[in-house]
Amino acid sequence: MSKGRSSEADRYCYLQTELARLEHAYYVLDQPLVPDAEYDRLYRELLDLEQNHPDWITADSLSQRVGGTPLKVFNEVKHAVPMLSLNNAFEESELVSFDRRCREGLGLETVEYACELKFDGLAISLRYEGGVLIQAATRGDGASGEDVTANIRTIHSIPLRLTGKKIPDVLEVRGEVFMHRKDFERMNKHAATLGEKEFANPRNAAAGSLRQLDSKITAKRPLSFFAYGLGALEPANWLPKSHSQLLDLYLELGLPVCHERRVVSSVEGLQQFYQEIGAKRNQLPYEIDGVVYKVNLFKQQNTLGFVSRAPRFAIAHKYPAQEEITTVLDINVQVGRTGAITPVARLSPVIVGGVTVTNATLHNEDEVRRKDVRVGDTVVVRRAGDVIPEVVSVVLDRRPKNAKPFEIPSQCPICDSHIERLVDEAVARCSGGLFCAAQRKQALLHFAHRRAMDIEGLGDKIVDQLVDLNLVRTPADLYRLGFSALANLERMGDKSADNLIQSITQSKSTSLPRFIFGLGIRHVGESTAKDLAKHFGNMHALMDAQLDDLLTVNDVGPVVANSIISFMSESHNREVIEQLLASGIEFQVEERIAGVDLSGKTFVLTGTLPTMSRDQAKALLEAAGAKVAGSVSQKTSYVVAGTDAGSKLEKATELGISVLDEDALMKLLGR
Ligand code: D41
To answer: For the BRCT domain, which residue ranges apply (predicted)?
Structure first.
């Protein structure tokens, strides 16, 4: 080999390793190491080298993630070790008998269980030989499935080559292919703009994407993977003692494993895991339909064995279904704070995931059109992350003949003002502004919000009455309310009226950012309000701000700036602000905790703290002048870690950043 060629070959090897490392950091650890542009540059360089040296290309080259010729059919793959199914448990009693069966079968007092999530995707088996991915197959009937290798190669979080020191000769990794909620939504939005078919949920989207004969299509679908099981293995002595150790080894091999897992040794421990995950289920970035418990020690798993095609050593503990079918009784519209018109389906009541649902949002006019939801239709409703139930799709073959298509009304149902839809906006709006009672109610609720003026006890039932009885028209009216007006409201006792008066009075002592946020100026969220307060220092300066000055504020662009100017140019709004200021509202400088100054320090919070929420910890830190950031970097001063801290903690350890627990944090804060 000439000198030039060998250095090119070296460069090629380097690029393969380096690109694999960058992909792993990006897709598995969720911690990008370089900007996308740098990755793209290295990847292009790899492609160029391969163009000149086609004989260098191997199946595990990162360039081979992109698909080749479409298949005619999927070939059948016989699983070397069958892919079992899981028995389900829905109730505590079934869990108790599972634990009893395991303990009795093993003749033990207690058994250790590995708990993990049950991802709602597709079970897949990945076969690695000599550390290289050579085949991927769907579960099929458990004995044989379909060869989806080309499609699986397109998934960036699945390594084409394993890393680490102890790579087995043959390893079949079992796990789930799924789609993150965010990726799913982005993909569906994109499909909509192209007029393509949208998927009903992430599971269908993942399944549909894997079933593509043309892997170029799969490559465009944002699929993810988590490993949770084992098929064939050689040599057998590579196997660690337990399932939890196996998953740790998987991580070392570069395979993605979910960090939401725990080892427990009692039914109470299982229940606790189920409950904790259940509580944050809707906040998880992907959908799960339950959790899975597995006897942790492989020796004990073998002793317990199988019944028909399901193991005795594992069970899925399912959450109640989050999707149900019901009928649409009516469709009407709600008016939001900024006049946005939201169509809402009134439903025949149905229990979804343990909660009775009678209304579901249809988001906006285009969504109703796209899903073609009509009064009388049978629809699928879902309770998802944001808790507001939504209509997912129509069961078309149950559509009655007289089903009525929906039209957005031309007049606001609340104030009769004209409803308008600007050309470049997705939503229609009531043009009534604060003349519209619905918008007024929402504006008042926003003003009273915990993160704005924080008026405890001013909920929607009370605001409804205050506005309907014309006792309150603007936020300024709140500060003129007397005891008797409040005490006369429905479902309001003397004591509650007293409490509400007190919280209204207390709200006068606030901060400038809270006040600005509370005004409900379109596009001015909490963080913009903070920036505006910092820049202008007082309310009158903001009221008279000019466009070019506004544009110098952090994160304020033309849309936000114009929205502020248009708000402040309404004499009505200026009057309300003046009245509020005259009613004795005072802006406290954001309080500092006496004696502690953490300004210039950056903290990252991760995991669950024993006694306080992350929001509380963040508030304490900010009050002491510290900055709280979302991700760990060289600039991080401290990481505060609770239980189940994941990759952020790992990163902190890697970078040698001090890690505090809640006790240490409180000491630092002088508490
Ligand atoms: O997350 C899952 N969907 C999941 C599925 C999981 N976390 N663990 C699983 N474990 C198994 C055994 C114990 C049989 C290896 C599974 C599945 N099986 C499974 N998925 C589809 C069929 C079986």
So the answer is: 598-671
Measured CA to CA, the distance from residue 499 to residue 361 in angstroms comes to 34
Probe ligand 1: pick from 79, 228, 302, max atoms within 8 Å of CB? 228
Question: Can you tell me the distance from the alpha carbon of 606 to that of 626, in angstroms, rounded to the nearest whole number?
Answer: 16
Catalytic-labelled residue, pool 3, 72, 78, 118: 118
pLDDT tens digits, 346-378: 999 988 876 788 999 898 888 888 889 999 999
pLDDT at 386: 46
Question: What average pLDDT does this structure show over 273-290?
Answer: 92
CA dist 103 → 87, 89, 112, 304, 313 (Å):
17, 17, 10, 10, 10
Integer Cα distance of 658 and 662 in angstroms: 13
Q: Which residues are annotated as a binding site?
A: 36-40, 85-86, 116, 139, 176, 294, 318, 412, 415, 436
Beta bridge partners of 465: none
pLDDT tens column, 555-586: 899 999 999 999 999 898 999 999 999 999 99
Q: Checking DSSP bridges between strand 122-129 and strand 170-178, what pairing results, if any?
A: antiparallel
Catalytic status, residue 461: no
The CA 230 to ligand 1 mean position distance, Å, reads: 10
656 Cα to the center of ligand 1, angstroms: 37
| Helix, strand and coil percent figures for the chain, each rounded to 5 | 40, 20, 40
The answer, yes or no, to whether residue 634 has pLDDT greater than 90, is no
Q: Please state the pTM of the whole predicted model.
A: 0.59
Q: How far is the CA of 671 from the centre of ligand 1 (A)?
A: 46
CB of 86 sitting under 6 A from ligand 1:
yes
